[in-house]
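Morning - S-adenosylmethionine inputs below, output right after.
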Amino acid sequence: MRSGQRDEPPAEPGSARAQPGNVGKRRGLTGAPGVPPLIDGWGREIKSLRVSVTDKCNFRCRYCMPAEGLEWLGRDEILSFEEIARLVRVMAAMGVSEVRLTGGEPLVRRQLPELVRTLAPIHGVEDLSLTTNGVLLDRFAGPLVEAGLRRLNVSLDSLSHVRFAEITRRDALDRVLAGLEEAERHPELRPIKINCVAMRGFTETEVPALAELARRKPYVVRFIEFMPLDADESWRGDEVLTGGEVRRIIESRWPLEEIPAKPSSTAQRFRFVDGAGEIGFVNPVSEPFCSSCDRIRLTADGQLRTCLFSRREWDLKRPLKDGSSDSDLADLIRFAVRHKELKHRINEPGFVRASRSMSQIGG
Ligand code: SAM
Ligand code: SF4
């Protein structure tokens, strides 16, 4: 059984509540004039799109990819930059204002700055960002900024060479740190966020050095709970090091105080009481935030996913190739969004894993 079956939204397309005319008249909703915003069947407005530009990666992080043997998509299977830009334009007109480029490793896609240059000026896109493992950032930070990138997330799970290689299966810490230094040289790129996946038995020892990094650098270090999206399918609930536990480790040394965050924010934000920097916790497992989720995802091969844990995808590539109009694409996206899952069910008996792993979806 696909997970969505238990999560069918209360209002089916065509019902009175779900009529575009009705939802568009709600107060405070955005989008191009005359275009109803994207509202799911549970009443959540979709504002944020993650775009995976490739499923390929030059790392093999244990929590994400297998050591070897994952087959890449063929060249002809992945969306072109023009196709991505067209979909972003259609969604921006429906109120999507945040676009994050991801992968796989987005910087292995050739000429990524050219995509940034195309997306940055799209009307309605207020926040264009990139998530990267940072290994190619020393080369690309400048061209990305020049093309219009203003926000950056870099994954970094350890500041120890040995531990870094253990988790990523690559000896590349120095290059990632060089990439961060290069990013720091561009004041346009703020805030620089560091993402660390928190795994029990690994991350506890890394926390103090990462917290210390947040204190001495202009980086917001965020700990993300390990989710069952690893290609090896070895995730177990007891391997999740919760945000609460990480926070206790940090507070045993440096007291923290909470900073208000946007309601749709995935992260709880904290600053060091002595004023020396910011830390974040993304706790999808111990404190799910599905009720305020405003995200959808586009895979590198043009499939729309309405949840990280979706078992169902909506094909946008074929209509793109078949010459569908923008209005046809918008209808399809609207229909998919109405069927967005209510929530993930990681903590429930009978949880069924997503149909693809993290690097193939775009985290
Ligand atoms: N390669 C880029 C990177 O690592 O930043 C972008 C893609 S990666 C899939 C996006 C984010 O997903 C990263 O911050 C990574 O740490 C996170 N991630 C990957 N697997 C995860 C898992 N099983 N649980 C939680 N986060 C995960
Ligand atoms: Fe690659 Fe990012 Fe997955 Fe690590 S987390 S294997 S860098 S896609």
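Note: The CA atoms of residues 257 and 270 lie 5 Å apart.

O.
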